[in-house]
Write a structure and sequence with these properties.
Thrombin, subunit H, elongated, Chitinase A, domain 3, 5-stranded antiparallel sheet, 2 domains, mainly beta
Length: 160
């Protein structure tokens, strides 16, 4: 069975940056299981997997536009430390939830200088090429419940 819209797919993967450093991989030999065609993976990787079959191995380089987007300087803002009241110790690298006009957004503290804190709303991998090594482990039809929820249930899925 090849990978198509509305199928449950299990993959083993390793993600590296252009320097060859491993950024992420399927945890301890357990595959990542997702519902194909529902935005559960970055678009570039989902497109590359379409039509593949169990046992297929591929190496793909995903450009930023098909991954986590280009780095956007407009998503960086400086705020006074008092705007972050309730957070006792603010350190560089800290991940926070920020309320924005577009809803809640994850931001990273990128700089702290005196009373000013710089927050970066870009995904940590924005602007980077994503180098994936993928092996397709399993492909199966999704259940009606998985389709209605838009994600996988059971082993490797969302509800376990």
């Amino acid at each position: 069975m090849s990978i198509e819209q509305d199928q449950v797919v299990s993959i083993h993967y390793t993600l590296k940056n252009d320097a060859g450093e491993v950024l992420d991989s399927s945890a301890e030999g357990e595959p990542l299981t997702y519902l194909h065609g529902h935005g559960n993976l970055i678009t570039g990787l989902e497109r590359e997997l379409t039509g593949k079959n169990p046992g297929d191995k591929l190496q793909v380089k995903i450009p930023p536009a098909d991954g986590y987007g280009e780095y956007d300087k407009a998503l960086i803002q400086k705020v006074p430390r008092r705007a972050l009241k309730g957070i006792p110790k603010i350190t560089v690298g800290m991940r926070l939830q920020a309320q924005t006009q577009g809803g809640v957004r994850a931001v990273t503290v990128s700089h702290v200088s005196g009373d000013m804190v710089t927050l970066d709303g870009n995904h940590p991998l924005a602007g980077q090429h994503l180098n994936f090594e993928v092996e397709v482990a399993e492909v199966r039809p999704a259940t009606a419940e998985e389709l209605s929820h838009g994600h996988v249930h059971g082993p490797g899925g969302h509800h376990h």
